[in-house]
Amino acid sequence: MSGPRTGQLLLGTQGFAFDDWVGPFYPQGTPKNAYLESYAGHFATVEIDSTFYGAPRAAVVRGWRERTPAGFRFSAKFPKSITHDRKLEGAEAEAQAFVSTMQALEDKLAVLTLQFAYDFGPDSLDRLDGFLAGLPPGPRYAVEVRNRKWLTPALGEMLSTHQAALVLQDLYYMPRMDWITSDFTVIRWLGRRSDIERFDKIQIDRSAELATWAERVRKFLDDGIDVYGYFNNHFAGHSPASARQFAELVVTRS
């Protein structure tokens, strides 16, 4: 008789198209059009950042799928035209089209995240509720808020109703959360943009923060929660190294 299911941990970075990684991460001489293939030889997932600035063409999404191995997973952010410009108002058709395009990834689609700016406040709870209810079934959805006034039981209950995850952040002005609102969670290690100028090596020691997160993630996994974790270069200076450091901490039990 098998025991309780253990969650799956998929770690990667926020984006992969960084020239500063050639040498420290990608082999010297790697051309831009081979970054993704090289990346997928090291990590099992990536968060696509470019979708925040505009929905990709269907051919581009199919290319992502074709250029990566079986088992690789892509997460992506909804376009900011939906989350920041319209703040969800009248954006249902655009959202439907975006999700449909991303579903060309088929089994390689991990999570689609609605990331909101600080000025999207909890007075929009009902709007968010209705918007989540109208999203196409199938993909996993996550919500990232940047205003701590959102962090009330009402948000957690609403997200649980839709089986959407609350993105857990390591962001300097937001609390480090451990809320679970679905059978998966998303963690985004963000840092402060002004702290880092180049992305070629670790420049800030984040060992203490990562050790705390590792304890939390081990508990999530033991509870059967799948964890998608994505590091930004601004977190410590070189996100591939941060992801590797964190992976080692999770598997090394004290």
List keywords for this structure.
alpha/beta; TIM Barrel; 9-stranded parallel beta sheet; 9 helices; 9 strands; 33% helix
Task: Describe what this molecule looks like in 3D.
The protein has 254 residues and is of the alpha/beta class. It has a single domain (9-251), classed as TIM Barrel (Alpha-Beta Barrel). Helices cover 33% and strands 17% of the residues. It has nine helices and nine strands. The protein has helices at residues 35-39, 58-66, 80-85, 92-102, 125-134, 153-161, 207-222, 233-236, 239-251, and strands at residues 9-14, 45-48, 73-77, 109-115, 140-144, 165-166, 168-170, 184-189, 226-231. A nine-stranded parallel beta sheet has the order 6-5-4-3-2-1-9-8-7. The protein is globular and about 50 Å long. The mean pLDDT is 96.
Q: How many separate structural domains?
A: 1
The Rg value, from CA coordinates, equals 18 Å
How many strand units? Answer: 9
Shape: globular
Order of helices and strands: EHEHEHHEHEHEEEHEHH
- Strands side by side in the biggest sheet: 6-5-4-3-2-1-9-8-7
